[in-house]
Amino acid sequence: MIPSPETLPHTVSTEPFDPDLKPVMTAAQERWYRASPGRIFWWRLCRHRLAVISAGVLALFYVSILISEFLAPYGSDSRNVHALYAPPQAVHLWHEGQWVGPFVYGYEYHLNMGTLRRVYHPDTTLIEPIRFLCHGDSYRFWGLVDSDWHLVCPAPDGTLFLLGTDRLGRDMLSRIIYGTRISLTVGLIGITISFVLGITIGGAAGYYGGWVDSLSQRLIEILRCFPEIPLWMALSAALPVRWSPILIYFGITLILGLLDWTGLARAVRSKLLALREEDFCLAAQLMGASPRRIVVRHLLPNFASHLIASATLSVPHMILGETALSFLGLGLRPPITSWGVLLNQAQNINVVALYPWLLLPVIPVILTVLAFNFLGDGLRDAADPNR
Amino acid sequence: MISYLVRRILIMIPTLLVISVIIFTIIQLPPGDYLSTMVAELQARGESIDQGRLHFLRETYGLDQSPVERYGHWIAGLAHGDFGWSFEYGMPVRDVVGDRLLLTVIVSGATVLFIWLVSFPIAIYSATHPYSWGDYTLTLIGFLGLATPSFLFALVLLYLANVLFGLPIGGLMAPAYQDAPWSWGKVLSILSHLWLPVIVIGSSGTAGMIRRLRANLMDELNKQYVVTARAKGLSPTRLLIKYPLRLALNPFIADIGAILPQIISGAAVVSIVLSLPTEGPMLLDALRSQDMYLAGSFLMFMAVLTVVGVFLSDIALALLDPRIRLGGGVRR
């Protein structure tokens, strides 16, 4: 890349000045100067190591939602009535100094009559080896193909609850894997809605100016005054109870997207206000292009990378919003499984004290939110021409 | 300054009116009303309700009027302190709410203070030692605060506070003071309970504040006048306080407007988890049982709190920055 001025030695050349001298560039410099903006954007992004790692993590998560059924050891609703509130089972490799391969110890449990709690202990005589690529609970892959292949399964007649079970004896790990599907798409659909709204409203405000602009600015100011979560609560409480879970899901994403567009609209507007004075915009107008075509085809691409960065930064906001709503019981409802719905079981302090593994769905939430934030930061830095 | 104040107040009035229309529409959205929910519940239990009584109730609560008429009544009532009738509690909303509004203001105000007190020194440290280990660690902690859902953080902190320090669980004051009139003991009790919700609610806003202040301060520190001052031999602390810090302070005040809605909205969720006697838990109940006037006045109050908070931050900003009070208009 380009060497920074501090690293160059300070020299004064005694050679006579030749006005026809052409600067000689190294191959790397040549490549840099001839690269397209998109390529430079990509190079800058790759230099941001945290952003690349985050992108990798997110890609893994999103690929996992394609094959959730295969990855989860159990079905999302398979119950084991002998293991209610069972603690996580640890994976062992050696049994009494002998190599066995990955296995878990079976549960030995009794009811504590004093506290009426189920107490589980690993039973070191019960060795339950984990099977890989095996037949387990049957499922309908994407609701189309019947299958029962799983990446990992418990031993026949054994259990494999790596993250414990919930009140009904359902495997937490499997449910988290299934919940990923809903939680990650809520943000994407929500951001699409807010993107469309933001670009349309911000674009109209910035391109036309005048009363359209002042009207939309007032509207944005008012919407920004609203505390978000209470408004989301009120809106989702207004969703009819009779709706099917899928409709509720779309309703919630719509609600999440409906309030989020203001920041985006402001960004689009301020950029458009400057760009519409440029000559190429006038040229397009003279050639008879429609306002829509000018905005979408000629103006928006000028700051598309900015838009993508700010969209990335507001996805985690929506994921957290869905989690909070579902946690309060106002968002998604079972049988839909999302991370927020899973956390709904962890509503009181007894859970933290007695069954702390029910809090585990928070870890993917934190990971996703962090990854989106780091990736968004990286994209924003890469899109900034002043760096 | 006076003309700026007047203009600012004049903007506030239509803003609040539009907000009240939006809120009224939202609380009207659910199909049916409180009475029909109640009738359905009674029927489900196999009880019947006298039609005459139902009609009487419908009339007294104004449920038979058109939405526009009801909005007129509601907004006229709001204007002179009558918030309507709570169906759930069978009392005027004002009596149900009690000092919850005041407690909400206290919690939100304390959170703003907390965010300032915490993010100020951290941001200065991060900006003066950029890309150091301390900077990275503090940034990471800030990001974690941003990424952890506040309700869970509240639960875990509550549990730890109880196990490690033996603190009582939940609430904003000792149970003895719950319905007692205001006294010194009550104030002290509230102060000793306040830190937990304030930390939890503040954790999400602090990260953003630190990052903005750090970015602003770093921009200032790179400017020529700082180099000049340093070359003239000003000590680093004095230099920092005398010039760049003052300039970087502007967004610090202006940001209240941006983080206040966030704080109030975070406070609603956290107070539900911690069962604080603020608006959050009651808003949730009111929304669930379609107690529309109660829910409406809570939403309205939260919006008013935000608008007033933004107004105050704008005035503080105008006092600080002559460009704003002379130039007209509010720039963030």
Short description:
The complex is a heterodimer of chains A (387) and B (332). Chain A has 15 helices and five strands.
Level-2 CATH architecture of the domain at 100-320 in chain B:
Orthogonal Bundle
Strand content of chain A: 5-15%
Mean pLDDT of chain B: 78
Number of domains of chain A: 2
Q: What is the structural class of chain B?
A: mainly alpha
N-to-C CA distance of chain B? 18 Å
Overall average pLDDT of chain A:
83
CATH topology of the domain at 100-320 in chain B: MetI-like fold
Q: Supply the number of helical segments of chain B.
A: 15
Oligomer: heterodimer
Strand segment count of chain A: 5
CATH topology of the largest domain in chain A: MetI-like fold
What is the overall silhouette of chain A? globular
Which stretches of chain A are poorly predicted, pLDDT < 50 over at least 5 residues? none
Biggest sheet descriptor of chain B: 2 strands, antiparallel
CATH superfamily of the domain at 100-320 in chain B: MetI-like
The biggest sheet of chain A amounts to:
3 strands, antiparallel
Radius of gyration of chain B: 24 Å
> SSE order of chain B in H/E notation?
HHHHEEHHHHHHHHHHH
SSE map:
The complex is a heterodimer of chains A (387) and B (332).
Chain A: H1 27-34, H2 37-47, H3 49-64, H4 68-71, E1 92-95, E2 98-112, E3 117-129, E4 131-141, E5 145-153, H5 172-208, H6 210-225, H7 228-237, H8 245-258, H9 261-275, H10 279-286, H11 291-299, H12 304-327, H13 339-343, H14 349-354, H15 362-383
Helix pairs in contact in A: 2-15, 3-15, 5-6, 5-8, 5-9, 5-12, 6-9, 10-11, 12-15
Chain B: H1 2-28, H2 34-44, H3 51-60, H4 67-79, E1 85-86, E2 91-92, H5 93-97, H6 100-128, H7 133-147, H8 150-165, H9 184-221, H10 224-231, H11 236-242, H12 244-273, H13 279-288, H14 292-320, H15 322-327
Antiparallel strand pairs in B: 1-2
Helix pairs in contact in B: 1-14, 6-7, 6-9, 6-12, 7-9, 8-9, 8-12, 9-12, 12-13, 12-14, 13-14
